[in-house]
Amino acid sequence: MYFSQRGVTLVELMIGLAIVAIVLIVAVPAAQSIIIKNRIVAEINEISGVIQFARANAIDEQLNTIVCPTSDFSTCSSNWDQAKMVFGDEDADGARGDDEELLVATSLISASNYVAGPAAVIQFQGNGSANAQTTLIICHNNKQAAYARALTVSPQGRVRVSRDVNKDGVHENDSGNPLSCP
Questions:
Q1: 39-60 b/e with 16+ CB inside 10 Å = b?
Q2: What whole-number distance in Å separates Cα of residue 141 and Cα of residue 78?
Q3: Cα separations (Å) of 22 from 12, 13, 16, 25, 30?
Q4: Is 59 part of any domain?
Q5: Domain-located, residue 5
Q6: Which residues pair with 143 in a beta bridge?
Q7: Domain harbouring 90, CATH code
Q8: H-helix or E-strand containing 58?
Q9: What is the mean pLDDT of residues 86-111?
Q10: Cβ count within 10 A of residue 159
Q11: Domain annotation covers residue 178
């Protein structure tokens, strides 16, 4: 006898759809969390790299070097969600002059994240030290502490990224307290 199959039964179709639905329910939220964390890590790495570049430039050139957020790549602002620029502050006035070269800049932060930082610029002296200890906190717009990451610049100019020391899913600040999103 010869039997040819031309399709699937309704029961087979429903079982297949149920399996696909279960896989989507389990996989999509986990993938979304991974995407959010990876985007935040990429942005913190970009900012960290720019800050480390500024410190290295200050040491190499023996010149005050400034990192600050900017909307126009000419003036500094206090909104750390904007692009960040680095320039050598040749006249030591804390602002970018027309004759001061823009050394490097970052892109805008992702629309799904935000950065909370100081009102002041980050300034490195020729010996590599920073003007003050500075902490930048990067968060997802949903403000969940599990996505918060901190970037700290010490007075000596060292850059540190927060870590989850106690492995509870939330990174801690330098004092060991869990990070929270402002």
A1: bbeebbeebbebbeebbebbbe
A2: 19
A3: 16, 14, 10, 5, 13
A4: yes
A5: no
A6: none
A7: 3.55.40
A8: helix 10-61
A9: 90
A10: 19
A11: no
User: 91 lies in which domain range?
Assistant: 11-110+118-128
One-letter amino acid at 173 equals N
The answer to whether residue 18 sits within a structural domain is yes
Predicted confidence (pLDDT) per residue in 140-167, tens digit: 999 999 999 999 999 999 999 999 999 9
Tokens at 33, concatenated: 């969390």
Q: In angstroms, rounded to a whole number, what is the distance separating the alpha carbons of residues 26 and 105? A: 39
Return the ∠ at Cα 120 (arms to 113 and 162), rounded to 5°.
Answer: 45
The Cα–Cα gap between 63 and 74 comes to 19
- Which residue in this structure is represented by tokens 């932060």? 109
**What token pair was written down for 173?**
């600040």
Distance CA 137, CA 135 (A): 6
CB 50 within 8 Å of CB 67: yes
Q: What is the pTM of this model?
A: 0.82
Q: Domain count of the chain?
A: 1
Q: DSSP 3-state assignment of 92?
A: coil
